[in-house]
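Ticket #4471: structure output looks truncated?

Reporter: J.K.
Steps to reproduce: submitted the chain below (574 residues) through the standard prediction queue, then opened the result file.
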Amino acid sequence: MAALYLAVAIPWTFFSDLAVDLLLDRPVLHAAAVIVKDWLFVLASAWLLYLALKREIGASRETMDRLRKSRQEFLDILDAMPVGVALANGHSIEYININFSERFGYSLDEIPTDAQWFLLAYPNSDYRKEVIALWQDEVKRLGQPGAPVRPLEVKVVCKNGQIQHVIINTQMINNRIVVIFTDITEREHLHNELVKMQKLESIGALAGGIAHDFNNILTGIMGNLSYARTVLEPAHAARRTLDMAEKATRRATELTRQLLTFAQGGGPVKNVTAVRPLIDEAAAMMLRKTEVRAEIQVEGAVRSIEADAGQMAQVLNNVIANAVQAMPNGGAIRISADNARLEAGNTLALPVGDYVRIAVVDEGVGIPEAIKGRIFDPFFTTKATASGLGLPAAYSIVSRHGGHIGVESAAGAGAICTILLPATDKALPEGASLPPADERAASGQRKHSILVMDDEVIIRNLAATMLKHLGYEARACADGGEAVRLYAEAMAQGAPYSAVLMDLTVPGNMGGLEAANQILALDAGARLIVSSGYSHDPVMEAYQNHGFAGVLVKPYAMTNLQKSLDELFAAAPH
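Returned output as attached by the reporter:
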């Protein structure tokens, strides 16, 4: 524009002066012409300057519009990012994106400075000091050429009180600090769930073997105690001692039952079950003789579940027992059940579908933050007399049912245990009852002969002794091969055994399952009872599918043995 001005102004000055000198020779006219010339020059210059300024202003406006558009596009990109972004200038926070506000709940007005952010996001003073120290070290590193940017892993308290696990990445751009918050709460949750399952699977392999062997030992103890009590006179002084010993054995049996919950290779035996009876029974049992009362609220339209009723009773018993122990001064436990729907991508990593949600809320002492992550660890307990298997067993059972169990708590604020189980539209089965146990006298009324197969000499000798006391003829052997041979010999003599009590697992020799197949091949009407200390074995859970007519779980007392045989013979008289 300056060049245009010079191109017009210089020629104008030259030719206008020349015209005045040639055409106007009179003084007055000459003076007027000079004045006109000068005003025309001023007007032309002003017009040219106006055009120049107008063009410059238009270009500036276009530049400003482009800058505003670029800035808005940049902010739109930041708002679309799936992470929280904050921009700080010194100690002032200039900008936070939408994800930041939605994830943590704070607006820019609430956190105008980094000091205010630290105060709200890290309310615990000790933890806040730790985070600030790490942050300041990182900011110092940003000023060093070539220094790598190190991420910080922290826990941020949101405006609603929830805690988010985040990774913070920091970068310096033109004296401004850009901070990116990546939420890893869900990822950590899924990782912790996987670790829990791996722990339970690892201990399950060990627990299964231990519990099986332990149950064999307990069978010998419990059986002998029950037999000794039977042969003693009712007024004998030793009966009370035997009762106490048998009670202690039952407690040991409960411990092995919880150990077996972790064992691999056996799922729950599921039937369509209503939730309300399970809750009522568990509450009545676990709150008996305590200062704690139950407030139960179950929706009338709550759906049924497909579950192993015994295992689910164990879950509720363990959860309610924990709640009672957390309330030494009494109070109320609120137990509720309702329907729930989980969508894809839920944080529990459960399939999409309908669930039944059971919540147990207590008013107890709560769970300290330091141990919250360990409550589902096997054998972890804060109680001197506890085994540390209650909640781990509940976790394992619920997982095998395709559900989830979780606990939310804070020290001094009680606890909420939530259980989610897949719902079913299947109808509840009609009520059925087992045939009553035979209450006949022990001697002179049974004409049956029983073959006992067990690799533990104590158990097979004890079983034979108890059977003889109950009025049966009994013979014992150590493995499946011998049982098949003895059964074949008895058939050849025309006096087959009325029943065979078979141990399922015989290390190094033929076990009960193979022996059962061979005996049934000899005699399709053979009546076989499977017995094992591994109650969660698939054969034990579905014994009829494998040719057995009855099941007897170790450890067992003489009354258990009698009941099994009575039910066997009542169902199919020989």
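Triage note (M.O.): checked the attachment and the full token line is present. Residues 1-8, 431-446 have pLDDT under 50 and may be disordered.
Status: closed, working as intended.
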